[in-house]
Amino acid sequence: MRKVLFGAVAAVVAAAIWFVMSLSSGKGEAAAEPSGVSAAETMRLPHIGLQQAGFDPARLAYVDEAVMRSIDSGDAPGAVLCIVRRGGIAYLRAYGNRQVLPSTAAMSEDTVFDLASLTKVVATNTAAMQLVEQGRLRLGDRVDRYIAGFEGWCNPDNKRDTTHIRIIDLMTHTSGLPAYARPETVAAEYPDLCFPDRDATMEYIAHCPRQSPPREEYRYSCLNYVTLQHIVERVSGESLDSYAAEHIFRPLGMTDTGYLPDAGLAARCAPTVVDRDEGLLCGVVQDPLARRLCGGVSGNAGLFSTAEDLAVFVEMMLSGGEHCGVRILSPLAVKAVATVPRGFEQFGRTLGWESYAGYTTTAGDLLSPSAYGHTGFTGTSIVIDPQLDLGIVLLANRVHPSSTGSVARMRSEVANAVAGAIEEL
Question: Which of 60, 123, 130, 283 could potentially form a cystine with 269 if both were Cys, beta carbons 3.0 to 4.6 Å apart?
Fold first, then answer.
């Protein structure tokens, strides 16, 4: 079916457009097309019929009920759902409101969301895997190879007995690093510095107390991905925001995706919390570590995007790392990302993602064992099921206007309703 939807001719044309785009002005700006269609628009997924995507339209209506139950219960003011299957967008719908303070604004399909921890997999992890497949990085490399003085686990009874932290430990959240670093805690360690200060933040992480030896416990940690960000930047010679834009988002035509949204994108953002000092955050990352310590560009959070942009990313992953003739990851890199590494089965984490059999119910109860996904604190989530050729992007701003809502049940119910509506495997 993919070959029907995206034939060889379309792939060649898209690849040619991207080649021309990458040569112009050094910034990836597309040359004018005779048809008036931009290169980015050619990368957009087509909207296909539900039956063409193998869904029963009547049964898929249950997803609307699941989302609205959550909104009516006060879990989130609104949401956007996008379902990807068979090379196209089968379903795209906005629900509720994107804003309730200081005034009410309806949710729209093109609303820009603070992705929170989806940043880890969409930007940081993808960048790291590109460097791995280029032979510039190894999963088994020690972190102190790239960050001088980065400490491992030291046996308190024998200071010479050290277990070093490796890149694979960062990706699988088995490094032993603490889960988080509060801005006030880090600032207190460096009273003479003015934050945000990324270098000081990294120095703090390099030496803060370890909670356990590497590869002995699973502990989800934002510090893992701040560290991975610095490794990506050291190896590539580019800041993470520039690297991701140049090597991931721009090639895929994801024009609404990036760090530090400009005024145009910020105007379409779903606001998040009301900060005591900064007021209503809109177009500014909610995560305090990313905002106050790292200046908005961080490996753990800070990315903004839309449902349709993320649909392109999901389709790239479903298609073995390629979309419309543009390759972002190799097929084997995608397979590695979707698989729990050998020796890490007990932790239920792939290289960056949550596995179906892991610690989450995001994928619901009916998707295949090959499903993997990730969530974000603000209410965002992605589920990818290669076996079913299915992607579910569910974006909600559950932290607006306060962080009291929970969309965990909604995610699971939506996944079940989507799976239950599939009539053609």
Answer: 283
Q: Write down the pLDDT at residue 217.
A: 96
Contact 81, 92 (CB under 8 A): yes
pLDDT band of residue 349 (cuts 50, 70, 90) is very high
Contact 396, 78 (CB under 8 A): yes
Once rounded to an integer, what is the mean pLDDT over residues 80-91? 98
What share of residues in the chain are helix, strand, coil (percent, to 5)? 35, 15, 50
Nearest to 323 by CA among 38, 6, 21: 6
Sign of the C-alpha dihedral computed for residues 187, 244, 92 and 411 taken in this order: negative
Q: Tell me how far apart the alpha carbons of residues 187 and 292 are, in angstroms, rounded to a whole number.
A: 10
pLDDT in tens, 368-409: 999 999 999 999 999 999 999 999 999 999 999 988 899 999
Nearest to 121 by CA among 305, 246, 322, 260: 305
Question: Is residue 95 within 8 Å of residue 78, measured between CB atoms?
Answer: yes
pLDDT at 103 over 90: yes
127-156 pLDDT, tens per residue? 999 999 999 999 999 999 999 999 999 877
Type of residue found at 230: H
Cα-Cα-Cα-Cα dihedral sign, residues 198, 200, 202, 204: negative
Up-side HSE of residue 216: CA atoms within 13 Å toward CB? 11
The answer for residues whose C-beta is within 8 angstroms of residue 109's C-beta and 6 or more apart is 80, 92, 93, 94, 307, 308
Rg (CA), the chain: 21
What pLDDT sits at residue 361? 80
pLDDT greater than 70 at residue 112: yes
Residue 315 C-beta-side C-alpha neighbours within 13 Å: 30
> What are the structural domains of the chain?
44-111+306-420 (3.40.710.10), 119-252+275-302 (3.40.710.10)
CB atoms within 10 A of CB 342: 6
**Omega before 196 cis (within 30°)?**
yes
Q: Cα dist. 191→178, 194, 197, 207 in Å?
A: 22, 8, 12, 17
